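Translate sequence into structure tokens.
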Amino acid sequence: MKLRTPFFSAALMCSAALAAAPAADPNIPHLQKKGTATQLIVDGKPFLMLAGELSNNSATSLEYMKPIWANLAAAKFNTALVGVSWNQIEPQEGKFDFKMVDAALEGARAQNLHVALLWFGSWKNSLSSYAPDWVKKDFERFPRAQFDGGKSIEELTTLSENNWKADAKAFAALMRHVKEIDGQKHTVIFIQVENEVSMHTITCDRSPLATKAYGEQVPKELMDYLQAHKDTLIPEFRAYWGANGFKTTGTWEEAFGKGPGTEGIFMSWNYSRYMGQVAAAGKAEYPIPMYANAAMYNIVKGQFTPARGRPWDLVMDVWHCGGPSIDVISPDVYTLGDFVGFCAKYTQNGNPLLIPETSAGAGVTARAIFAFCRYDAICFSPFGVDRASPSSELTSAYTLLGQLSPMILAHQGDGTMSALMFNASDPAQKVTVGDYTMQVTATRPRGGPAASAPAAAATSLYALFIKTGPEEYYMVGNGVSVTFASTKAGTPLAGMGTVEEGTFVNGKWTPGRLLAGDDTEQGDYLFLRNNNITRVTLYSYK
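Result follows.
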């Protein structure tokens, strides 16, 4: 097989994509900065995606999906993440069938749901199982990645121009169709490009195309980007590059050193270029926001863990350079023990937080509120929500977030909102919002039943604080007590004035019980429990 240069210059491709893209339409879904946050704008208003991802193949059957849409609406979802495969829309080369895409959008609209489409193109969970038969069978035209020794993997190589162009052509056709049928209705609000890409079981593609490219000079555009952003690179990546002397030229191993970390950087570059060109082709037809998702992993602090090309936080700088048409790098977070860590890592360097896959199990309320209110997330989406009826906790969480969404969106990015999440065994935590510091501990109110130790340890507790006036706050939590201290000079002490429970109905606060006495430990503590919304006024004194 004749080797060829697999890609045009990334800089030229980016320029071509920008030139081909139509002028941005402010009416279509788009991302917009608000202070330190990035928000999704739908129909001119900021929007929180209270989402759920369907199982991979659910939307391929009309009968299967008939009851699902109503179930999602009843469970208070406002968005469904729906898979669309390359094989599904282009079973024969150049002949497109969008029947199931149309059906999915019609089903969602009937229940006033939005949709994020998941493009299962060249890869799904590393492998190429969703590529069309005409691609799979023609392994000469559409070459595979390989192990050492020349054995192929059922995984399209990132280094083939034929591969990315065929994928990009199909994806562009999908986006052109979405614009035609949805460009005015805005049911589709986000797109996932591919799914959890990664080399399968090995750190690097050993195909002839990949081997040749690995031995060549690191592309100048990547080295220029790293130099320009040297002081703000992801710390682990910067340390890895620095350990080899911050070299700015050379082959991959000359620039970064020899080992699986360098192979991971090389594969991240090639995945990001490939997917970036697919995304650019789609955006040239209909430029709504797009993200790439990464499979979970265990965080190893201070260690540059080999990425095998995945869009991990460690190599986000490479992905931002190689795939500028991809708006967000997103973590699929199933490792609940370090949910806080994932949120922090995937919001480095201005990357917005979007969680397209997570568990719907215990603690989902705490995780959703923490993501939206501490890290200004765009989306929170448990996986497989069609497999069974959504859990009562997830429905309760989305019911609560439905009430709070207008306030959350109004306060994202401006420093007037924060949240804490922890387990019953954790020490007290503090957060400062406005002129007051809140210390939060796990507790139970006087006279309340004590939870068993295993149950308490397994459940993530949380507290949310939103400052809405000089000394007015709305607070929500479960299983915690809060004490307050003033940060004002000369008046370090803080007391609670009015404390009332209530609800938001159509965005308007409706007061409930007025609390004092045992419910506030005579003014010493505020108990937040049962996800109740509480309005509190504070005052400072000495």
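Note: The chain has two domains: 10-199+268-405, 417-541.
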